[in-house]
Amino acid sequence: MSGGLFITLEGGDGSGKTTQAELLGAWLVESGRTVVRTREPGGTEVGVEVREIVLHHRGDIAPRAEALLYAADRAHHVATIVRPALGRGEVVIQDRYIDSSVAYQGAGRVLDPEAVRGLSEWATEGLAPDLTILLDLDAASARARLDSARTRYDRLEAEASEFHDRVRGAYLELAAGEPDRFLVVDAASPVDEIAAAIRARVTGLL
Hints:
Strands 2-3-1-4-5 form a 5-stranded parallel β-sheet, with helices on both faces. The radius of gyration is 16 Å and the shape is globular. It has 8 helices and 5 strands. The chain has a single domain (5-203), classed as 3-Layer(aba) Sandwich (Rossmann fold). It has helices at 17-30, 45-56, 63-87, 98-108, 113-123, 139-149, 161-177, 191-203; strands at 5-10, 35-39, 91-95, 131-136, 182-186. Helix 1 packs across helix 8 (191-203), helix 3 runs parallel beside helix 5 (113-123) and helix 4 (98-108) packs antiparallel against helix 5 (113-123).
C-alpha cells in the first residue's frame, strides 16, 4: 500500500510484545522510516472505551459479545489509524490483531475460529499484515512474568492455565498454516536475540 508496511505482534500476555515493539520501532525510526505504534484494543478513543469493557468489566461477558466488541474496535481502528498510515507509506507496528481474536475468542472461549476470523476480516475489509511476529512462551513462564510485574490481572490474564494453553496452541497452529506471514520466536530467549531475529526478517521486507 504505497510503500507502507503492516507488522503485528502476537503472543500470550507476558510474552514481551511491548518491549519488542519499542525496540523495532526505534530501529526503524533510526533507519529513516516513519513509524506508527498502536495496539488493539485501545488504539483510538473508541478503542480505549472498548478496552475498558473487554479487559476490566466486572462480571461476565458472553463469548460472542466479547468477540463482537473486539471486532467493532478493530473496524474503527483499521479505518481511522492503520489504513491511513499505510496509505502514507508508513510502517505500522501493532500489538495484537485478528490472530488474537482467533486464538483468544476462538480457542480460548471455544467459539468457531473460522467464524471469529470471518467477522474480523469483514470488519477490516480483508486487511492482512505483511508480517506477524509470534512471541511464543509457555503459560507457566508467562504467568511468572506477570506475577513479578503487576498486582492486578485483567479478565483474560486471570483465566486458568488451561485457557492460556489453548490460546498458545491456536497461535502455533496459525503460524504453521501461514509460514510466509509468521515469524515465530522463542520469547524465553534474551531480549537482544529476539530483537535481532525480528530486524533480520523485517529487513527483507523493507
